[in-house]
Write a structure and sequence with these properties.
Chain lengths: 121, 110
């Protein structure tokens, strides 16, 4: 059974960089056809797609966040990561990592449990 | 890219049917059968319930069904049960930003 687990600081100061890692177990991020994505959910609000990455390093980002987002993948550790710079209180959210099926289908079929990141001084 | 439009809430009694709409545009729902639906009980991660408009992943009860007409997709829960009480989100592929989510619908079982 595929499992994803987010990890990283729960508190980040304004203007600094938010960094999260997603560790995948029960499967490989190098499996062809699957992509790996990040989605966030501000407290009490809806889901917002951040972006995703293929194991080769190819990335695709939400245009609204593109200028602040960087994603990377480490196939040796079976992990992928998110960096969001110049954060503000508006970036406070639960951050989820998920497996992203693309192509003729598009959906997020496996999700991590999510991690709350608070932006505050 | 604006979020897909969902009603904020729907409700029904146990055993009844409820339908949640998800309205997009010709750039997303209207042009692609890549619509998916997610269930999110309070305090938990979203769970995929429907993909490619009307397909159910293994383990999802058949009382959950999906459909699409024009720019609007729909999720129907037949034979509503108390455990179906949750937030539901639609999502679609979009030619402009790849992924777009709906604003979410809270389903209440009366």
């Amino acid at each position: 059974q595929l499992q994803l687990q987010e990890s990283g600081p729960g508190l980040v100061k304004p203007s600094e960089t938010l960094s999260l890692t997603c560790t995948v177990s029960g499967g490989s991020i190098s499996t062809p056809t699957y992509y790996w994505g990040w989605i966030r959910q501000p407290p009490g609000k809806g889901l917002e797609w951040i972006g995703g990455i293929y194991y080769s390093g190819s990335t695709y980002y939400n245009p609204s966040l593109k200028s602040r987002v960087t994603m990377s993948a480490d196939t040796s550790k079976n992990q992928f990561s998110l960096q969001l710079n110049s954060v503000t209180a508006a970036d406070t959210a639960v951050y989820y990592c998920a497996r992203h099926r693309r192509g003729s289908s598009q959906n997020f079929d496996y999700w991590g449990q999510g991690t709350l990141v608070t932006v505050s001084s | 890219q604006s979020a897909l439009t969902q009603p904020p809430s729907v409700s029904g009694s146990p055993g009844q049917s409820v339908t949640i709409s998800c309205t997009g545009t010709s750039s997303d729902v209207g042009s692609y059968n890549r619509v998916s639906w997610y269930q999110q009980p309070p305090g938990t991660a979203p769970k995929l319930m429907i993909y490619e408009v009307s397909n159910r992943p293994s383990g999802v009860p058949d009382r959950f069904s999906g459909s699409k007409s024009g720019n609007t997709a729909s999720l129907t829960i037949s034979g509503l049960q108390t455990e179906d009480e949750a937030d539901y989100y639609c999502s679609s592929y979009t030619s402009t930003t790849i992924v777009v989510f709906g604003g979410g619908t809270k389903v209440t079982v009366l």
